[in-house]
Amino acid sequence: MKLQTNGFHSLEQVQSEYLSHKPKDPTEKKQGSLSFQDILKQASGKDSEVRFSKHASNRLNTRNIELTDRQMERLQEGTKKAQEKGIRDSLVLVDSLAFIVNVPSSTVVTAMEQSEAQENIFTNIDGAVII
């Protein structure tokens, strides 16, 4: 039988190694390390800018819709507000433009002029932000 010593020569050394330390505070972070929430935010891309799906990009092109820098900022702001409220799929209205945004992925799934919306009915959303 092979004995494993782990570098300890006596029971007192084991006790001093494992029993004399204060319990670690689970909320304590090492300097320079990221919290789980920070890592999750980075992985989910919540700090990233709004992206456009292929469908939304095609809609913008076919409808000759061009966004100004200010409109893009407002779209980003509206998406952030929807995220803060826990909305998953949001209608974001910027001037006369309507965007359906998947908030968790910060992705615009479709875009249109408000006047193009049939009967001004928007489905499959759980919130709206007017910016």
SSE inventory with pairings:
Layout lengths: L10 H8 L17 H9 L6 E2 L1 H9 L6 H16 L4 E6 L2 E6 L4 E7 L13 E4 L1
Parallel strand pairs: 1-4, 2-5
Antiparallel strand pairs: 2-3, 3-4
How would you portray this structure in words?
The protein has 131 residues and is α/β, with parallel strands linked by helices. 32% of the residues lie in helices and 19% in strands. The chain has four helices and five strands. A hairpin with a 4-residue loop joins β3 and β4. The longest helix is centred in the middle third of the chain and has 16 residues, at 69-84. The N and C termini lie far apart (75 Å). The mean pLDDT is 82.
List keywords for this structure.
alpha/beta, single chain, 4 helices, 131 residues
CA radius of gyration is 26 Å
Silhouette? rod-shaped
Structural class per helix/strand content? alpha/beta
| Count of beta strands | 5
Helix content: 25-40%
Largest sheet: 5 strands, mixed
| Low confidence ranges | none
The spatial strand order of the largest sheet comes to: 1-4-3-2-5
User: N- to C-terminal separation?
Assistant: 75 Å
Order of helices and strands: HHEHHEEEE
User: How many helical elements?
Assistant: 4
Strand content: 15-25%
Mean pLDDT, as a whole number? Answer: 82
